[in-house]
């Protein structure tokens, strides 16, 4: 699915860090976007009613002349194409987030992870277990013959 990185940390960690950095970057732009959108909304609200009525008339006329059977026939192939394109874009976006996350996390963390992994490997090695000396078996007592 994605290319393996040459680091010891998993790609999903880098993707999460990249997504967080991207979200932070976009949130910093939010006040300017809100201002711009509110100005556009105020301007477009004035002409919305006129355009909506004209568009409704156009759509009514178009619906009467549309061949819906032909549209249904093409829907499956178009849906498959769109799904495949979405998958390719998702893989590309994930790979970009991994690369961005690697930059955010930095090489220092990778070095630390290598040291931790080496420590784990040395401490988790199999330990030799010495067998305890066998305890002497208890002697059997002589039993009395059963009386009749």
The stretches of 5 or more residues where confidence is low (pLDDT under 50) are none
pLDDT averaged residue by residue: 79
Number of helices: 4
Structural class by helix and strand composition: mainly alpha
Quickly list its features:
elongated; 4 helices; mainly alpha; 148 residues
Task: Give a brief rundown of this model.
The chain has 4 helices and no strands. The protein has 148 residues and is mostly helical.
Present the secondary structure layout:
Blueprint: H1 11-28, H2 30-65, H3 68-105, H4 107-123
Helix pairs in contact: 1-3
Describe the protein in words.
Helices cover 74% and strands 0% of the residues. The protein has 148 residues and is mostly helical. The chain has one domain (11-122). Helix 1 crosses helix 3. The longest helix is centred in the middle third of the chain and has 38 residues, at 68-105.
């Amino acid at each position: 699915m994605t290319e393996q990185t040459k680091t010891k940390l998993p790609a999903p960690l880098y993707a999460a860090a990249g997504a967080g950095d991207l979200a932070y970057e976009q949130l910093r732009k939010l006040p300017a976007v809100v201002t711009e959108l509110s100005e556009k909304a105020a301007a477009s609200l004035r002409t919305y009613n006129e355009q909506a009525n004209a568009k409704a008339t156009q759509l009514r006329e178009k619906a009467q002349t549309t061949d819906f059977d032909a549209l249904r026939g093409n829907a499956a192939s178009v849906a498959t194409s769109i799904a495949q394109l979405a998958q390719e874009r998702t893989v590309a976006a994930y790979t970009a987030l991994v690369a961005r996350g690697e930059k955010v996390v930095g090489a220092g963390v990778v070095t630390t992870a290598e040291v931790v992994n080496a420590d784990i490997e040395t401490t988790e090695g199999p330990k030799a277990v010495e067998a305890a000396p066998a305890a002497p078996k208890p002697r059997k007592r002589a039993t009395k013959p059963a009386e009749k």
